[in-house]
Write a structure and sequence with these properties.
This protein is α/β, with parallel strands linked by helices and 432 residues long. It is built from 16 helices and 17 strands. The strands form 3 sheets. Strands 1, 2, 8, 9, 10, 11 and 17 form a 7-stranded mixed sheet that branches. Strands 6-5-13-14-15-12-16 form a 7-stranded mixed sheet, with helices on both faces. The longest helix has 33 residues.
Length: 432
């Protein structure tokens, strides 16, 4: 019997597996999708995420396949610059920020998992947790059993739910938590090569990477390739909720997405007089390369662990955070790394799982919930700035708030507590 069964082979599950393997804890990954089922688009990784990737040996390979940056510039919808903030800093946090394709990140993590000999089973959909038993004085460890759609049952000391926002494992721990809630925002992303812009990029008033906060919503421009030639842009806009089937249909119809973007940002009633570079990015991007990412969040999940602490949630299964704060993946990585420290403690020779496990796991849970709660507040504040302005005075107020915050708080923008986090901090929490 393996020690830890990880349900979900996304980014958080892969990082957890590698951290457990590093601590000599046997594990296996069970992923419902096929290996070649990869979501498109790119992801921004802050220093607290890169610090964890570095420790599992992934950072050096990734840093030369994505765009490294430290500053991101803020402007209004017309391109007038308001200032900049650090999203990373080798000097301040030992790591920059990295924009990289999700497919490249996942590919590298899977490669390391295979190299290290950690089993990963594809097309393996977990349907429920069958049972959970506690450790006793006569039995070294308790266990939990997961059942899969093909009828197979897998027993392990611990079952970790890293199966995303629509988690099946969460229904065992917190059956009363409602469905994910649409935030009212979706992100449409396009990619274009710098050569297609000609001299526009060099002559633009905009520093890149940048975010524009306009009356119609927000637009981000960030390269995603190491040489900076592949330019990715995304637009956050308000829209109505859809069913999963309708979102899939929308996301597969590039022309529909492009028409919506052009109508909303270039041809609508509220025109921001966008810089020519922004207009050309939208006009020249081919419909077939557009992708869509609707922003959902979870109702508060009070418990991330089962009664006997044998089933545990991490990442989006516990706390789906919209990407407006750039910390969704980082929180999953932090959950994974800190949990590996805790489980290593649980398997140490002097630890009594029958008497001490509940207290140990509960302290980890409270430590992470406190951290994620603060990140959620930060993300909500960022999300509000990305929404469109109904009236002129709202747009003026939004620009003044951003400008004043940058002037008062400076380029670090109070982000030290976010980017400087070390997973080892959990050791003090579980020792108290």
């Amino acid at each position: 019997m393996i020690q830890v069964a990880i349900i979900g082979g996304g980014l958080g599950g892969l990082v957890l597996a590698l951290n457990l393997h590093k601590r000599n804890i046997s594990t296996a990954i069970y992923e419902s999708r096929s290996e070649d089922d990869i979501h498109g688009g790119s992801i921004a990784l802050a220093p607290n995420a890169l610090r964890i990737l570095d420790r599992i040996g992934a950072y050096e390979a990734l840093r030369v396949r994505g765009f490294i940056y430290e500053r991101i510039y803020f402007a209004n919808g017309s391109g007038q610059e308001m200032g900049y903030v650090f999203h990373g800093s080798s000097e301040l946090y030992n790591f920059p920020a990295l924009r990289i394709k999700r497919s490249i990140l996942r590919e590298e993590l899977v490669r390391i998992v295979k190299r290290e000999g950690v089993p990963i089973y594809w097309n393996k959909k977990c349907v429920r947790i069958v049972s959970e038993t506690a450790a006793t004085t006569t039995q070294t460890n308790g266990s939990a059993t997961a059942e899969f759609s093909d009828g197979e049952k897998v027993e392990a000391d611990f079952v970790i739910g890293a199966d995303g926002i629509h988690s099946r494992i969460r229904s065992f721990i917190a059956p009363d938590v409602g469905d994910p809630t649409f935030t009212g925002l979706t992100g449409i992303t396009g990619t274009i090569h710098a050569d297609e812009l000609g001299d526009l990029q060099e002559n633009a008033r905009l520093h890149v990477p940048c975010m524009l906060f306009g009356a119609n919503g927000s637009i981000g421009i960030l390269p995603s390739s190491f040489d900076g030639k592949e330019i990715e842009w995304f637009a956050n806009l308000e829209t109505e909720d859809r069913s999963r089937e309708e979102w899939t249909k929308f996301g597969n119809d590039g022309q529909w997405m492009k028409d919506l973007i052009l109508q909303r940002f270039l041809y609508g009633d509220k025109i921001d007089h966008s810089p020519e570079m922004v207009k050309q990015l939208m006009l020249k991007t081919r419909p077939e390369v557009l992708t869509n990412w609707p922003f959902y969040t979870l109702p508060h999940v009070e418990r991330w662990t089962s009664p006997h602490k044998r089933v545990i949630l991490i990442g989006d299964a516990a706390h789906a955070i919209p990407p407006t704060g750039g910390q969704g993946a980082a929180m999953a990585f932090e959950d994974a790394d800190t949990l590996s420290y805790v489980l290593a403690r649980a398997y140490s020779p002097d630890f009594n799982q029958a008497t001490d496990l509940s207290d140990l796991i509960t302290k980890w849970e409270h430590h992470r919930q406190d951290r994620v709660g603060k990140i959620t507040v930060f993300t909500s504040q960022s999300g509000r700035m990305r929404r469109p302005s109904t009236y002129v005075y709202e747009q003026v107020a939004k620009e003044w708030i951003i400008w004043a915050a940058l002037k008062i708080r400076g380029p670090q923008a109070g982000g030290e507590w976010i980017f400087s986090y070390n997973p080892e901090d959990v050791l003090a929490a579980i020792s108290s």
